[in-house]
What does this fold into?
Amino acid sequence: MAADVKSMTLEELQAFLAEWGEPKFRAKQIFAWLHEKQVDDFSQMTNLSQALRQRLAAETSISSLQMVERLLSKQDGTRKYLFALENGSVIESVLMQYEYGNTVCVSTQAGCRMGCRFCASTLDGVERSLTAGEMLSQVYTIQKDLGERISGVVLMGSGEPLDNYDAVLRFIRLLHDPAGQNIGQRHITLSTCGLVENMYRLADEALQITLAVSLHAPNDTIRQQIMPVANAYPMEQLLQACQDYIQKTKRRITFEYAMMQGINDSDVCAEELAQKLRHMLCHVNLIPMNPVKEREFTKSGTERVQHFAKILQQHGVETTIRRRLGSDIDAACGQLRRRYMQKEER
Ligand code: SAH
It folds into this structure.
């Protein structure tokens, strides 16, 4: 396949074009077309010579996505998008509108291979990892569709970001590049189910992004029942990796905790969790679990969630309850894609 110029950093684009005998500023021009003006077609890059535009079109590519479906929430401006990749795989992205700005929830893989038992994205395993260009295209396409700036990105769509490490890091650097969209690192959140080795790698990248860790349980016994990854990395190792991240980046970690009735939502669970987290620079985000029809779990009641939060807070653990956006278009995460794929199979 032709090299995707959208996935290249400015330095890589400079090196690539140097081999064609092009001066350095040419790479800057192309970079600005791709990431500032977000043009997906070389013919529109009007400050390049005709000959260079033709050579670029013949020998390289610009990754893009096709919008297959778009659902708009009537309640709060949330939008769900179904995009097709060039090989036909489909992915979901979500736009969330907050008072402080527009945030896009990006998929990092088509499907997922982590196997969390409550999650719809992993039901059919992973089809493939996305390139940095494909992740950027989710943000750029939604920005164009909305006609407003996207100021934040969360890597919380389908896929495990740390299972696609290099492309994800490239994506974050490109998003943050002042010559592109210049999205502040503090407005970027990467969510992981806890791939410990790559959490250590991430801590060494000297980024200022927020790390969110899908904990979902106060101990290994419960975590192993709902997250296969817990068999590979016991919680003690996971929390050590979190401490390392905090120490190196001075950034507060977010722990995600999806509340599942009768599984992880008792007072005893809250007490145990509080004991483990209370001296950590962290924040717990309780997520009212999204019921997935193929999965047996049910969500905890509102009062249970509130009580759980109160116990954590009493122990000094900062806790919030995630607000549900777009509940009127709320096929749980990954469900839109699944419905589409099943339709295609028939
Ligand atoms: N692979 C990454 C990011 C994916 S999903 C991770 O595991 O963190 C983003 C968050 O949604 C994760 O915390 C994930 O565990 C959670 N999630 C998945 N399915 C869910 C469901 N049905 N209800 C509530 N949260 C869910």
Q: What stands out?
A: The pocket of S-adenosyl-L-homocysteine is lined by residues 114, 116, 118-119, 156, 160, 191-193, 214, 256, 258, 287, 289-290, 292, 332-333 (CB under 6 Å). The chain has twelve helices and 14 strands. The CA atoms of residues 116 and 227 lie 5 Å apart.
